């Protein structure tokens, strides 16, 4: 997938997140934002899988369903949702690990516990787009 297509797709996702945040505001549980964001992205015609099981490989060990990605869009972008006071470095590291394990290039860390949604968006890239 080209950088241009990743940018276009992430733009749709971010606009959807802003729409959800405008409608719901901060202070709710992640699950509420997940439900609303998935609905909003599907309205935009995106292929969305929520709580997608990802297998983890450690040496010769295959850990089936080792973690669950909050949302995967178009089988290309992992979205990690938060509703926390502050995004910590560990949250960014967690998403980068998810990207590596799932062999995905782009992740969006979306924190809905902010006054303005634009302040709750972190874009994480695994390698080059």
Note down, in words, how this protein is organized.
The structure is a single chain. Helix content is 39%, strand content 32%. By secondary structure, the protein is α+β, with helices and mostly antiparallel strands. It has one domain (3-125): Trna Endonuclease, Chain: A, domain 1, CATH 3.40.1350. The protein has a five-stranded mixed beta sheet with strand order 1-2-3-4-5, sandwiched between helices. Strand 1 and strand 2 form a beta hairpin. The longest helix is centred in the N-terminal third of the chain and has 22 residues, at 3-24. The model has no long low-confidence stretch (mean pLDDT 96).
Approximately how much beta-strand content do the residues carry?
Answer: 25-35%
Mean pLDDT: 96
CATH architecture label name: 3-Layer(aba) Sandwich
Overall 3D geometry?
Answer: globular
Supply the number of helical segments: 3
CATH class (first level) name: Alpha Beta
Total domains, how many? 1
Largest sheet features: 5 strands, mixed
Helical amount among residues, as a percent range? 25-40%
Side-by-side strand order of the widest sheet:
1-2-3-4-5
Q: Low-confidence parts lasting 5 or more residues at pLDDT below 50?
A: none
For the secondary structure, the number of strands is: 5
Distance, first to last CA: 8 Å
Task: Find the CATH topology.
Answer: Trna Endonuclease, Chain: A, domain 1
SSE order? HHEEEHEE
Over the alpha carbons, how many angstroms does the gyration radius reach? 14 Å
* Coarse structural class: alpha+beta
